[in-house]
Amino acid sequence: MTAAGTEPLTRRRAPRGSARRNIVAAATELFARRGYEATSVQEIVAAAAVTKGALYHWFGSKSELLTSIYRELLAEQTARLREIADGPGPVGERLRAAAADVVEHTAAHVDELTVWARSAHLIDGEHADATRRERRRYHDLFRDLVLEGQRAGAVRTDVSATVITHTFLSALGNTHTWFHPDGPLTFTEVGHQLVALFVGGLRPPEESSSPTPAGTAGDRSRSTA
């Protein structure tokens, strides 16, 4: 029993509807600050102000929590890319829009995506396999847009569409290894400079001797990202 008008001396728990959101936010912050391996489930539930039961209601394990954070963002990226790829307008404009969109989405979720980039090698099994399949679908969708540009004559054909796709997405995905938030450019500004390099590099050479349609042979295999 507690006296009227007083609070029991227990931690206030998060409202039911916000529990999952709080778990994801707490895990992201702790993984970024302490590292995935050094962060315990108990530390996550304490920071999120939930019980272990609440965490395991939403996520079967710490590894599932990490992969779920990334897979949800990847699903958002894929849906956005599909909408752009299937939309109206010349393919060159859609490619620029797709590149700019992934930059904007990455910048909006840079902490979560950086945590995944640093920790993905620690995850194996079913969750890792599912994540790779979903990432491959994203790469294939982006590559197919590049292939469309090659067939339309808007994108150079002397470079494989797979090489083009991996070069841009890998450059963006590895920005966290050298980017400093106290530097002269924001993450978004760096990303848009990558877009400028990407779009500029897509243009067909002014003089080309018998260009090989690289998208017909080297790009039949699926992405291995």
Automatic annotation (TrEMBL):
Transcription found in the keyword field = yes
Annotated region of DNA binding: 40-59
The superkingdom of the source organism is Bacteria
The UniProt keyword set, sorted, is: DNA-binding, Repressor, Transcription, Transcription regulation
Q: Does the keyword Repressor apply?
A: yes
GO MF annotation terms = DNA-binding transcription factor activity; transcription cis-regulatory region binding
What PROSITE patterns does the database record attribute to this sequence? HTH_TETR_2 (PS50977)
- A Pfam family reported for this protein in Swiss-Prot or TrEMBL: TetR_N
Location of region: Disordered:
202-225
**Domain HTH tetR-type, which positions?**
17-77
Q: Which PANTHER family match?
A: HTH-TYPE TRANSCRIPTIONAL REGULATOR RUTR, HTH-TYPE TRANSCRIPTIONAL REPRESSOR KSTR2
Protein name, please?
Transcriptional regulator, TetR family
Task: Specify the species.
Answer: Micromonospora halophytica
